[in-house]
Structure formats: structure tokens, C-alpha cells
Write a structure and sequence with these properties.
By secondary structure, the chain is of the alpha+beta class. It is about 35% helix and about 15% strand. Strands 1, 2, 3, 4, 5, 6 and 7 form a 7-stranded mixed β-sheet that branches.
Length: about 250
């Protein structure tokens, strides 16, 4: 995975701080990726920071291209600002080189004349290496390449089974911690299994839902239901696992 950011604020001389209109975020990005990153959840930001990024201005000529690492991301309703760093100054790229590789990099022609931020499911460094732009192993190793944050349907269903075995008090605690707006899975729903089904159905129907602390709700479910630490916690005194209703 990699990002490509085209902005009028990018210059030949490297500038570490850039801002882009939020409405341009994830243009020219597949819907499956957009669904997972569009809410800029905590997990989404971790992913974006773990992937390399092409930072470039509009054009198809000798404009300088910066391959960067995204260090911080801050967003509001109107804009997204980010701070980046260059990590291999020995590689010189221009827009013309990216234009010639656009098909391999999954970049549409019009992207070269449109300010936007896209995410592509391609191996940036392998494609650049094939065109004799070889980054060092040390430079490449800076990127953790975290996978997209949405868990598989299978993991969500496994989580449903685990939550269905929790007591009502434990489910109440889980819902309170999540603080997800619009989620109706209270005790009036019925049995613990019914509540677990309601939680998972909501997560599947609302893939971009986030918790009160901006964590992707689907990822939050899997972390809480399937993480190994639960087995350890159940053996230790902890109010969350005491007096569980059967």
C-alpha cells in the first residue's frame, strides 16, 4: 500500500508540512479502501503513517517528486494537515517518471492535474525499483506496512460467539467503553446471544462506525473479544469479570 498526495502547496524545495481539503481525501481510491480509511479512525491513521507516500505537485514534467514518510496527521471537518519527512535523499524523482509508471502505480491520468490524496494497493518500492529507482533496505525498513484495519467477517463472527458467552454486566461494560452512537444492544434486546448478534449486525451495517475514542468499532470488537489478554484477565481479580450474570 502507498499514498499519493498531489497538492499546490508542494514545491521543488521540500516542505515538511502540508494541508489538503478533506473533501479531496481518498479521491481515486477503491471503495473497499475508502470504506476502511475514510473516517480517519485511530487505526486508519496508524495505517496511513505506516505506508510510504508520494508527495507531488500537479504536472507531467520535471516537477520534483518527494517520497516521504507521514509522521503526524491532524484533521477537522474541512481539512487534513500532516507533517512528513524525507528518508532517502539520494533518490531523485520527477513527475515525468511517475507519469511513465502511472499504470503500474494505479494512477489515473487526471490525477496529475487534481489536488487530492489517494491510497493505492500497490508495492511502491518494487515498482520504482523496476524502473531503476532503488531505495535502500534501511530506508524501506522504516515502514511497518500495517494491513487495512477492518477485520474479516470470520473474526467478527468469532467475536459474536465470544461476546455471547459474556455476562450481561460484561456486555454493559463493553458498550459503555465503546460509546458508539446509534448502537442499540441493551438488555431489553433479550438474551446475551441476542445482544451479541445486535452488536455484530450494527458493526457490519456501519463499517465506518467509530468508538467514543475514535477507534474503528469493528477493530475494537475484535480486540476486546478475541485478544489473548482476556484469558489472563479472567484469572485475575478485576471488576469487569466479577459477578457475571448467567
Amino acid at each position: 500500500m502507498y499514498s499519493i498526495i498531489v497538492s499546490g502547496l508542494v514545491e521543488d524545495v521540500f516542505k515538511p508540512k502540508i494541508e489538503i481539503d478533506r473533501s479531496r481525501f481518498l479521491e481515486y481510491t477503491s471503495s473497499s479502501i475508502k470504506d476502511q480509511l475514510g473516517n480517519l479512525s485511530t487505526e486508519s491513521i496508524h495505517c496511513l503513517k505506516s505506508w510510504p507516500c508520494i508527495l507531488m505537485q500537479e504536472g507531467r514534467g520535471d516537477e520534483v517528486v518527494h517520497v516521504v514518510q507521514i509522521n503526524t496527521i491532524n484533521a477537522n471537518a474541512r481539512s487534513i494537515s500532516f507533517v512528513v519527512s524525507k528518508f532517502d535523499p539520494n533518490i531523485s524523482l520527477v513527475n515525468d517518471a511517475i507519469w511513465k509508471l502511472r499504470h503500474d502505480l494505479d494512477i489515473a491520468d487526471f490525477e496529475f492535474s487534481r489536488n487530492h490524496w489517494a491510497v493505492k494497493d500497490c508495492d511502491l518500492f518494487s515498482i520504482l525499483h523496476s524502473a531503476d529507482y532503488a531505495f535502500t533496505d534501511t530506508a524501506i525498513s522504516r515502514f511497518k506496512n500495517i494491513p487495512l484495519p477492518t477485520p474479516s467477517r470470520q473474526k467478527l463472527l468469532q467475536s459474536r460467539n465470544e461476546i455471547g458467552d459474556w455476562g450481561h454486566t460484561e456486555i454493559d461494560d463493553f458498550l459503555l467503553e465503546a460509546g458508539v452512537e446509534g448502537l442499540d444492544a441493551g438488555r431489553s434486546i433479550g438474551s446475551r446471544r441476542d445482544r451479541a448478534n445486535a452488536i455484530i449486525k450494527f458493526a457490519l451495517d456501519n463499517p465506518q462506525a467509530v468508538t467514543a475514542e475514535n477507534s474503528l468499532f469493528q477493530a475494537f470488537i475484535v480486540r476486546n473479544a478475541l485478544q489473548d489478554v482476556r484469558a489472563v484477565l479472567k484469572m485475575q481479580p478485576n471488576p469487569r469479570f466479577e459477578n457475571v450474570c448467567s
